[in-house]
Design brief:
It contains 4 helices and 6 strands, in the order ααββαββββα. The chain is an alpha+beta fold. A 6-stranded antiparallel beta sheet has the order 1-2-3-4-5-6. The chain is globular, with a radius of gyration of 13 Å.
Length: about 120
């Protein structure tokens, strides 16, 4: 829990409770079967602090590219982040095509995003 509090302090925003509960249970990892959302295949959830592609690393790596308050918490098979807008809790896909990021709305909340995961990537 202390690592999540540290992330919140670094960002200056509170993380959604549903996201915190998910991270305390799984701390990253790859979805086994339900790994698609609206045709996008999820590669990996970013771990909090330890492991590969941590939240801390992503916050630092993407700070110049993403909008303020965007937390890159998942990436797709193309290496593009999915972000929670910590100002309103909405979830966006942030394609990194040629360095120009245009967030695409996915869900109204982390919970809605997670509830919308499916096994079928056809959209």
């Amino acid at each position: 829990m202390q690592d999540l509090i540290s992330i919140e302090s670094t960002l200056g925003y509170n993380l959604p409770d549903s996201y915190k509960h998910h991270m305390l249970k799984f701390n990253g990892g790859s979805p086994e079967s339900k790994n698609c959302f609206k045709g996008m295949r999820i590669a990996h959830f970013n771990p909090i602090k330890y492991g590969n592609y941590t939240l801390e690393e992503n916050i630092e790596d993407f700070k110049e590219l993403l909008l303020e308050g965007f937390l890159p918490f998942i990436y797709d098979w193309g290496g593009n982040p999915v972000c929670i807008d910590l100002k309103n809790g909405k979830v966006y896909f942030c394609p990194m095509d040629m360095g120009d990021v245009k967030p695409e709305f996915l869900a109204n909340s982390f919970k809605e995003f997670m509830d919308g995961l499916t096994e079928d990537c056809d959209y």
